[in-house]
Amino acid sequence: MFLAPWLVGFFGLTVYPMGYSLLLSFTDYDFTQPNSTQFIGLSNYIKMFGSLFGLTSFTAPTGEVMRVDPYYMKSLSVTVTYVFVSVPLKLIFALAVAVLLNQRLRWVPFYRAVYYIPTLLGGSIAIAVLWRKLFEKDGLVNAFLGALGFTNLPSWITHPDYALWTLILLSVWQFGSSMIIFLAGLKQIPQEYYDAASVDGANKIQQFFRITLPLLSPVILFNLVIQMIGAFQAFTQAYIIGGGRGGVLNSTLFYTLHMYIQGWAYHEMGYASAMAWVLLAIIGVLTAIVFKSSKWWVDYGVGD
Fold this sequence. Notes:
With 304 residues, this protein is an all-alpha fold. The protein has a domain at 82-249: MetI-like (MetI-like fold), CATH 1.10.3720.10. Helices cover 65% and strands 2% of the residues. The protein is built from 13 helices and two strands; from the N terminus they run ααββααααααααααα. It has helices spanning 4-24, 43-49, 72-101, 108-121, 125-134, 140-147, 163-173, 176-187, 191-199, 204-232, 236-241, 255-265, 269-297, and strands at residues 57-59, 65-67. A hairpin with a 5-residue loop joins strand 1 and strand 2 (65-67). Helix 1 (4-24) crosses helix 13 (269-297), helix 4 (108-121) runs antiparallel to helix 8 and helix 8 packs across helix 10. It starts with a helix and ends in a 7-residue tail after the last helix. The model has no long low-confidence stretch (mean pLDDT 92).
C-alpha cells in the first residue's frame, strides 16, 4: 500500500516512457501523422552511423530510400569534446577553490555562497542570453580586451573556432555544486594526518598528493560521474548561444540540440528516440568504464 504511489510514478513516468521510446526508435513515427507510422527496423540506427561506412543513403524495409544523417557524427564529436574538456576543468577548478575555502579564513560561509550562485543561475535562459551578450563582437569581453590593447577581436560566440570554448567556459563557471561536495569531503579528512605528515617533514604539496587526493578520491569519483552525465545532457546554453541551430559550421551543435531539432523541427520522433537510446548507451558505457577503473585510483580507506 505504501509503495503504491512510488510504483505508479515509477512505471508511469519511467518504465512506460522508456519502453515506448524504445519502440518508437524502430519506427518512422511522426507526431503530426501518427496514423502513418511504420516499422522500419534498424533504419534509424543506420541513419546515424551509416556515414562511418561510406553510406549516403539506403533503402528501409518499407522500400523508402532514407538519407544518412550528415550532421550526426558532428554533433557527437562536438559533445564529446565539450564533455572531455569542460568536466576535468570544472573539477580541477572546483577542487582548487574548495581547498582554499577549507583553510582557516574569515567569511568562509560568505565565499561559499558567492561561489555557489553561478550553479543556481548558470542553467537559466537569462544567464545564457547574458553570456551571449558578453561574448558578442561588441560585447563587454571585447571591450575589456580592447582596453588592454588587443585589436581585431572576433565575435566569440559566432566564430567556429571559439564558439564551443565560450560554452566550455560557461560550464566551468558553474563549478559551485562540485566545490561544495569537495569541501564536504575535505572536512571529513582528520587534521591529525596533516599534523603527522608535517612532523615527518612533508610540505603542503606532498600532503596534498599523498593525503588529500587519495582520501578525497571517492568524492572525485562521485563528482566525475555526476558532471559527466550532466555535460552529455547540456542543452539550454547551446540552444540560446548557438541560435537554436548549432551555430556557425555547427560548431555548437550539441547532441541533445541535434536530437531536439530532429524531433521537433523535422517531426522525426522515431529517429530522435533512437538518438536518445544511443546517448543512454554512451553514458552507460562511459560510466561503467569510470567505475571499473576506479579500483585502481579510488581509495575507500578499507583494507583488501
